[in-house]
Please model this.
Amino acid sequence: MNMSGERLIAAPRADVWAALNDPEVLKACIPGCDSLEKTSDTSFSAVATQKVGPVKATFKGEVNLSDIAEGEGYTITGEGKGGAAGFAKGGAKVRLSDAEPPEGKAGPATLLSYEAEAKVGGKLAQLGSRLIDGFAKKMADDFFNRFQTAIEGPAEPEEAGEASADAPAAEKKKSWLKRLVG
Amino acid sequence: MPKDHGIGASSKRREDVRFLTGKGQYTDDINRPGQTYCYFLRSSVAHGKINGIDTSAAAAAPGVVAVFTAKDLEGVGGVPCGWQVTDKDGNPMKEPKHPILAEGKVRHVGDPIAAVVADSLAAARDAAEQIELDIEELPAVIDMRAAVKGGTAVHSEAPDNICYDWEFVAENKAAVDEAIRGAHHVTTLELVNQRLVANPMEPRCAIGEYDAGRDEHTLWTTSQNPHVIRLLMGAFVLSIPEHKLRVVAPDVGGGFGSKIYHYAEEAFVTWAAKKVGRPIKWTADRSEAFLSDAQGRDHVTKVELAMDKDGHFLALRCSTLANMGAYLSTFAPCIPTWLHGTLLAGNYRTPLVFTNVKAVFTNTVPVDAYRGAGRPEATFQLERTIDKAAREMGIDPAELRRRNFIQPDQFPYQTPVAVVYDTGNYGATLDKALELADVKGFAARKAASKAKGKLRGLGIANYIEACGIAPSSLVGALGARAGLYEAATVRVNPTGNISVFTGSHSHGQGHETTFAQVVAEMLGCSESQVDIVHGDTSRIPFGMGTYGSRSLAVGGSAIVKSVEKIITKAKKIAAHLLEASESDITFANGQFTVSGTDRSIDWGTVALTAYVPHKYPISEIEPGLEETSFYDPANFTYPAGTYVCEVEVDPDTGVVEIQSFVAADDFGNVVNPMIVEGQVHGGLAQGIGQAMLEGCTYDESGQLLSASYMDYAMPRAADLPNFVVDHSCATPCTHNPLGVKGCGEAGAIGSPPALVNAVVDALAGHGVTHIDMPLSPGRVWEAIRAARH
Model:
């Protein structure tokens, strides 16, 4: 399964890069992420709970960063073992570039583009293979929605994504990133 | 009036009373005192190097009795292979070890790595989750065409992944090449016979128990042949002498071949039960069945058929890649060779046949016999190619077949592929099938379909199979590591009722009914006086079990031989009681009579006298009335027939609807017509399943994608038409006492080509010449689209 896409984020490239390297941001953005801890400058250990079709499992695994080009992008790869459910692995090449701000917004903007692949094995492949493509696309969409929101702050309340719905009302206007990093 | 009793009667299946009322006793219904449960941790990658296994947490988990990995199994042998094929250079096939638990490497998704034995299944499963595996994934070998080019090897013993490269008939190679070069026309077809999963209703199950007081092992298992398991497991895996090992295969819910083989789980529970000192049960769940039951078919083949200007077949040349999977299952090597190459003459007089078969290791579940086993693959190649040839030559498909048939006066017929057909009449089944299918009315039906926007097609396929497996001397020469006779003991009890102990094993075939009919016919008694015992090595004589449509032809013949011995001895007893000469005694309808007199005694008196020998010729014969026979057939049997299928295809959606299906089979004599018809129905359902629905699919990394009934499409009642089944064109087998040929596999052999031929016929106007199975709407629609462009 391969996917690609891009996001136009209304924030300077340095901020987007910082967010991409912040375990707290990543943890908040990975759907179902229970924990994400930095184990070195380029690796994290992660625990995430996912449900694919009939299979629900907690995946434990490593996330590694490679091909790191400061401010330009990196390759993020991960492999999670879900016990009896099998395994999931995948990765994404993420690239950042300066861009014109989105319509109606001023200031610096960054174009984030990604090429991702995902693979499953064991019970997940046996029972959920038909669902994986849709699942992976939704995972990617959810991740980048949350990531964008984390940097830009939520859109106007009526457009706010579910991710920010449970945040205290007072903090709603404040971006996740700012909330998380102070 | 049809018979209501004995041979020829449609007696109701007596075993169904217990099956339909929940009284069946399957392996999983058995529970032993102190029983533990086993769960196998299986590989989730197709190919990998095991760098480490940490079982310490699992071993300490609640309820766990023990955890085992390969290192605990020192001294235990691998799962043996029962057939050795010799390659074209005279070398034995590559036969890598198939360990009980993975040693150093895993080679397919589902390969067992560790076994947890615990007080409950839940505890075993939970503990297995705590086993830490360090497996380095290796590139997977999946596609056979890529596998034989080398690169990654499944086994280091076979760097090009080829188990054997087999040629047959090697001496004919040059002549076949020559005939193809000089022929008026050569029809070429490349096709895939896709991989299938057997899917018996009852998943596999095994219980091992060790009696320390007697030093005896017992294995209850879902097997089609308990003595074969006892021999293979006792002698080759666990070194348990046969007198200390009992194997019981009680009621078994379907096998279709997948329960012939000796499996690692059986050996494990037998071995480990002694280690832990408690009985151990393992029951596969359905996912596990998909990952561990031997699968079927999986051939990629090219066929070339050379003809003269009148369509007479001159030569046939085939080359096949046959998937073995990751390890050699018990009979895997013989399926694409001796059960396949020897059938390539089909029902025809083709004088020259040559086939090359390369058996290939891949990182997939092992492949072995599945209903038909080799013969469906041969039939599909032949009948699809002949159909294509008919179209290319502008000859009616039925006529082209008829023109090449072996004629009734040519039997016994020596084929160019070793086997000798004893008897048959292929024109008779063709005529019968065409008549029953109302082929004359096809044009009108086709026009009616066209009027509503549908495409109608008619498909014909003949088949022949070699059944009644098999003459031991012949299969021994071909590499079988066992004899293939059958055994039967017939015990007349003192009050005259009869217990029959057969080496055949019933797992859906209805032996308890059919065998009783044979004995009742011979002894002139009621069927209810005859009981059929099977499936327990401690009760039955050493028998080879049930597969290859052999039970009645071979197992039934052994019963007949024993009953004949019983009658001979009973006549001696009767002669003594009647004070007459033995040669004057006739036996009919359960009465022993002195010829030409009214003096007679009944069966019961003779039986009782045998066991209460107060007035008995004790100096001439022993008391008792019990006989054992081993029957080793002189030849295979050759059931044959013609299947005609009519379909309607929706060209807009690719949906195929079967409109009618006719099966005209020659099974020789028939003991129970209803059971035979049921066997044909079942075979047709599985053959149509292959043609239309089923397909076992791995992704490029070896993940099994079709591992549940969400993704593996089994045929359901609504997918099948009403079958018209006929077995009136009988030419009795010439070399067994009942004149029977076997009917279990025919339906699955003849139906796929009939159906595909029908669909290709429907689409011929669109330029479609072939579609690989299964003919799903998507594939049919794609074929129409591709042919248009």
Remarks:
- Chain B touches chain A through 18 residues (CB under 8 Å).
- Residues 15-22+485-631 of chain B form a domain with the Aldehyde Oxidoreductase; domain 4 fold (CATH 3.30.365.10).
- Chain B has a mean pLDDT of 97.
- The longest helix of chain B spans residues 551-578.
